Amino acid sequence: MKAFLLFLLLTCFPLLIEAQEKPLVEIEILQAKSNSGMIRVLVFQQSDGFPDDLNKAIRSISVPSTLPTSKLLIEDLDAGTYAISIIHDENLNGKLDTNPVGYPTERFGFSNNPKIYFGPPSFDKAAFKLEKGKKTIQIRLK
């Protein structure tokens, strides 16, 4: 019996440690315009498809918009490099609405809060390293 318990301890303990070492990402989304609609979050691990190709994102998450801050916790990512893009989809149509000249009429943001000039930032400007433990990222919507 002792040998069996020792066997269970030796085989299960590494799995418990590995589960505890998975990184956590807490995202705080600031400056939404209203409580209307959803906050749509895409997580990318490579530049291909960033920032808006839903099919190339490794995670797609939607949470209700709450003022003054919407929060989201992602627990199932491995350590690595990621970039996040967010839109505040106020009218729930699943996309970032723009005016006739292409300027967004709904709020949006990216990890690292890079400056926006004439189009979205590159993956590299929005990228961050995720390692063990909890990482809190604040994204200010524009």
Describe the structure in your own words:
The protein has 142 residues and is α+β, with helices and mostly antiparallel strands. The chain has two helices and eight strands, in the order H-E-E-E-E-E-E-H-E-E. It has helices at residues 2-21, 123-126; strands at residues 24-30, 38-44, 59-64, 69-74, 80-89, 108-110, 128-130, 134-140. The longest helix has 20 residues, at 2-21. The strands form two sheets. Strands 2, 3, 5, 6 and 7 form a five-stranded antiparallel beta sheet that branches. Strands 4-1-8 form a three-stranded mixed beta sheet, with no helix packed on it.
Offer a concise description of the structure.
The protein is of the alpha+beta class and 142 residues long.
Key features?
single chain, 142 residues, alpha+beta, three-stranded mixed sheet, 2 helices, 8 strands
